Amino acid sequence: MEAILELVTSPAAWLALVTLIVMEVVLGIDNLIFISILSNKLPEHQRTRVRRIGISLALILRIVLLSSLVWITKLTTPVFDLGISLPGEHGEPALETAFSVRDLILIAGGVFLVWKATTEIHHSVDPQPSGETLDKKGRAISSFGAAIIQILLLDMVFSIDSILTAVGMSDDLPVMVTAVVFAVGVMLFAADPLANFISRNPTVVMLALGFLLMIGAILIADGFGVHVPKGYVYCAMAFSAGVETLNIWARKARAKHGDPHP
């Protein structure tokens, strides 16, 4: 009890909490975009349900991982080394050849994300995929169970990345749990509006798939020891989203004035 009171009255703990919440919310954007795109392929009456299940699974995974911090820290310990020397520009290794469990999970998750984003882009370019049921807008309809399994797989990858970030920024378990719960709450609140916005704007779907493709490539690179600063990634995403917002406003303005070429 005394330890909790010390945390509540500590300015450093509050600063760590706010910083960690911001970081967890930003890291959750990738997860939320994937869930939004995947849920929009389902029949309309199942979409909200699968989003809530997916985000709830993300919360459960994060809490479970936080409760086993000793195991989490071991994920970064190399389990095997290929023993290949690939010198970089300044003598450092260009790629890591010693792989930990975390590296393998990031590579597998990145490959899955690249495959999934590429498949969805193909479906968007070719609106008549063979062997799939289409909705009224020509989108392939997925099954509820398949959507949950895919969301669970990516939840696992994003959760490990999220928790390792939390562990690196704070030593207090209550602070980490509070930040994770708050961030997942934001995801739960934003899921339906984001998914509906993506569904209403086809060009945003392609932009979001491009984000997922880039994130998948970055996960693979991270697994091989090539660390791309997340700030660059999210700045690029924010810039692209800003340009697309201007395009949406321009289309609406032209449509309002009766432009035959919106």
Structure, described:
There is one protein chain. This protein has 262 residues and is mainly alpha-helical. It has 2 domains: 10-77 and 94-227; 229-262. The protein has helices at 2-8, 11-39, 44-66, 69-74, 101-125, 144-169, 173-200, 202-223, 230-256, and strands at 78-81, 98-100. The protein has a two-stranded antiparallel ribbon.
Whole-angstrom Rg: 21 Å
The whole-number mean of residue pLDDT values reads 75
Rounded to the nearest angstrom, the distance between the terminal CA atoms is 62 Å
Strand order of the largest sheet: 1-2
What is the overall shape? globular
Counting structural domains, the number is: 2
Listing every helix as H and every strand as E from the N terminus to the C terminus, the arrangement reads: HHHHEEHHHHH
Helical proportion, percent range: over 70%
The number of distinct helices, counting runs of at least 4 residues, comes to 9
**Sheet of most strands:** 2 strands, antiparallel
Beta-strand fraction estimate: under 5%
Q: Could you name the ranges where pLDDT drops below 50 across 5 or more consecutive residues? A: none
Secondary structural class? mainly alpha
